[in-house]
Write a structure and sequence with these properties.
The complex is a heterodimer. By secondary structure, chain A is mainly alpha-helical. In chain A, 77% of the residues lie in helices and 0% in strands. In chain A, helix 1 (17-43) crosses helix 3 (60-88) and helix 3 runs antiparallel to helix 4. Chain B is mostly helical. Chain B is built from 5 helices and no strands. The longest helix of chain B has 31 residues, at 83-113. Classes of the chains: A mainly alpha, B mainly alpha. The A-B interface holds A 25, 28-29, 32, 35, 50-51, 53-54, 57, 77, 80-81, 84, 102, 105-106, 109, 112-113, 116, 119-120 and B 40, 43-44, 46-47, 50-51, 54, 57-58, 60-62, 64, 67, 101, 104-105, 107-108, 111.
Chain lengths: 120, 145
């Protein structure tokens, strides 16, 4: 144990496992509810054209729910992708680079999705 | 007569190691193993296709004109690729979402009810793979025909 600090530090977790596990479950339930809400609105209410599709997402409560789901999705995907990098990518430098790339990818996608949502 | 540990013949015990990438094809996974790796593959696929999903969200919602552009990509094609390729991408997303959804419900159910015996793991894995495949094929049929 005497050589596990400084440049020999083992890059592992900091007891955030349970928190991330809970976050992944909670966000998954939110996204599952969102899925049911969207599918129900698509299936019931006549033929689906542009106006009915856009109307689904222009309701204020639906915008708020969609916003929450976009944020949930990013948290959920972050936990999942970090798990994948931790399992398959062992060199610390490569793993950190992929972690950073994942965050950039996700924040970029979230920004785009929220921009689309808010100008409706 | 007592036998010490040293005199007993060494019993050959099974050894479980991480499988190497070259063994993936020949390695026989149980259904729960398939459920696990497919959950991961479908999640990674959706992560990579996230910009495509948001592009669909954007063009289908922004205006009537962009909605028509959205539809034409799956008929006339885009970026030098024919429409059928984009339909295949959409179909891959449909399957990935449905499978990830079913496998996620399986996880939540296991977490909530502590259903972690072998039999439930096996049956629920097959159910998640089967149900998502059937719904994906039905939606795929609607997408292509």
């Amino acid at each position: 144990m005497s050589t596990s600090f400084g440049s020999r530090r083992i890059v592992v977790g900091a007891h955030y496992g349970l928190r991330d596990w809970m976050a992944q479950r909670a966000t998954s339930m939110l996204m599952a509810i969102f899925t049911v809400v969207v599918v129900a609105q698509v299936l019931f209410g006549g033929p689906l054209d542009y106006y009915r599709w856009a109307a689904i997402f222009s309701a204020q409560w639906m915008k708020v729910l969609t916003f929450v789901v976009i944020v949930s999705l990013m948290v959920h995907v972050w936990v999942g992708m970090r798990d994948i990098w931790m399992d398959y990518v062992k060199p610390v430098v490569a793993r950190l680079a992929l972690d950073v790339a994942t965050i950039v990818w996700l924040v970029g996608c979230a920004g785009w999705a929220i921009q689309v949502l808010w100008r409706l | 007569m007592t036998t010490s540990l040293k005199e007993q013949p060494l019993k050959r015990r099974p050894v479980y190691r991480n499988i190497h990438i070259s063994q993936i094809i020949s390695y026989r996974l149980p259904p729960a193993g398939w459920a696990s790796i497919l959950h991961r593959v479908s999640g990674a696929l959706m992560f990579l296709l996230l910009p495509f999903v948001i592009w669909m969200f954007d063009t289908s919602l922004s205006s009537e004109v962009s909605f028509d552009q959205f539809r034409s990509v799956f008929v006339a094609g885009a970026l030098g690729l024919p429409g059928v390729i984009w339909k295949l991408v959409a179909f891959a997303l449909i399957w990935a979402f449905l499978y990830h959804f079913c496998a996620g419900l399986r996880h939540l159910w296991m977490d909530l009810t502590h259903s972690v015996d072998l039999k439930f793991g096996r049956i629920s894995a097959l159910a998640a793979i089967g149900v998502s495949a059937v719904v994906a094929l039905a939606l795929g049929f609607k997408l292509f025909f």
